[in-house]
């Protein structure tokens, strides 16, 4: 198509062209010939370029598809929140890695019971969090809110409940330096109460059990402020059937500071009572010689005591001499065998009173008669006998034992 136009004015960069129906068209002057002036007539041919139009349409569609596939199909995924471990006062929550697609993250926040509990630090690296200071046996609702450049995404609400004091399934123990037998016993005890034994120190580790404070695991537990206790704490929880305070079971704690429950308390009370009973002074069953001596002496025994020679008590011959002193004359000196039996209690019971030298083996008749008279006077005067027994008791401790044994002879 050919169009004739009249140049009306040529200005810097722009030329004003007039059509036959007096319409003005601004046209770039650089596209006109160089010798054009006002009043010149130029012919302009206008035609449609189909090839260029098709190429442009193809390029535009390709760009549209690329944008759609990159930003329109793959979008950030909402977080998936779940419960990892629960105790009486804490909950450990974890979630899958954050899928941002091509977007950039702005923040990741945790909400508890509809209120914001806090923001997760380093959301692209952190995959779990621990909420402490919760109430015992209480229900809570949690959810995550992910804010990105592609929009805001929210996870499903998670409802969980803290444990009762008698629920020990939340105990997660990491063992430290322990003997093999003690470690096996610890694993068996945790299996019985429903606890878990893990080899590494993690965010869900509730207690670190060891007998010596050393090693990288112990250092990490101390850094994470995890209670370091002895294996006896697990045994106490098992026997009590509830969570026991760790104050008395720390690695360097005094065992006396342990707070025992009713089971341990009764056992400890029984041990204390038995110890006090065994350590208390027992009342002496041996009668006092000052009070019973005067009562036992007037009653002569009927039968001789078989162990008189070994226990330091008077022999049967001496008792017969004392009982028949008034009616019979003094017997002749006893034979040699009898003299030894008579001399033996005198050496054991009264030899130390007279001095370091024991009495002679032979007993003369005058001495026997004198002993008989003394016994008769003791029967008539118990008060004087009591004074004699107390004086002999002060001289030698064995005299008291001899008199006590004599008083306990069955009649």
Automatic annotation (TrEMBL):
Q: Pfam families attached here?
A: CHS5_N (PF16892), fn3_2 (PF16893), PTCB-BRCT (PF12738)
Any one biological process term the GO annotation gives: conjugation with cellular fusion
What GO cellular component entries does it have?
exomer complex; trans-Golgi network
Q: What is this protein called?
A: Chitin biosynthesis protein
Q: Where is the composition biased (Acidic residues)?
A: 319-328
Disordered: annotated span = 260-411
Q: Where are the transmembrane segments?
A: none
- Molecular function (GO) terms listed? protein dimerization activity
Stretches with biased composition (Low complexity): 266-287
Tell me which stretches of the chain form a coiled coil. none
Q: Compositional bias of type Basic and acidic residues: which residue ranges?
A: 353-384
